[in-house]
Design goal:
With 210 residues, the protein is an alpha/beta fold. It is built from 6 helices and 14 strands. The structure holds uracil.
Length: 210
Amino acid sequence: MSGTLKVVDHPLVQHKLTQLRRKETETRDFRRLVREIAMLLAYEATRDCSLTTVEIETPIQKMRARTLAGKELCLVSVLRAGNGILDGMLEILPAARVGHIGLYRDPQTLAAVEYYCKLPEDIAQRDVLVLDPMLATGHSAVAAIKRVKQAGASTIKFVCLLAAPEGVQEMQTHHADVPIFAAAQDSHLNDHGYIIPGLGDAGDRLFGTK
Ligand code: URA
């Protein structure tokens, strides 16, 4: 799978996303909904994980049963809003290693400026999921994925809640090998780089900072 946008249109994801978008949804519910959607997106983003069989013993008898094989996972949260998705993903992928990349958007140019980066030493041996709720201009996603590639990772997926066509295009230009998993693709960006209709500022809504 490469360079594609996969919209996860499962009814539970869509229902929860609608709740999330509502302007009256408060911080506590917003946080819970992001966590719940992240778990459902994790389900889809890990669908192609390879399996092997091991022999186990149930209380009744021995059997061969399926278990995960292949590379282990690393989740990389793009700070700060990526942490909302990270919390949900870790609930069902508790053994995953975690990296953080801090980026802010220059308000004038909308360029991504890095202020922090800490990645697991063995990231090159892991399958990586880069997490950021809003794929808007795509500048942060492109910069974060570039960092992860510099650290040696080669199997990378990007997971977000909402994708704008502009961000998807930017990803296809710079990282066509990285599939994108989103709960929805929205219409466009406004002049301030916000996704329309979107859900507002994901970081502020997650952390109650506005
Ligand atoms: N970041 C956000 O939090 N919201 C947007 O709409 C775009 C970028």
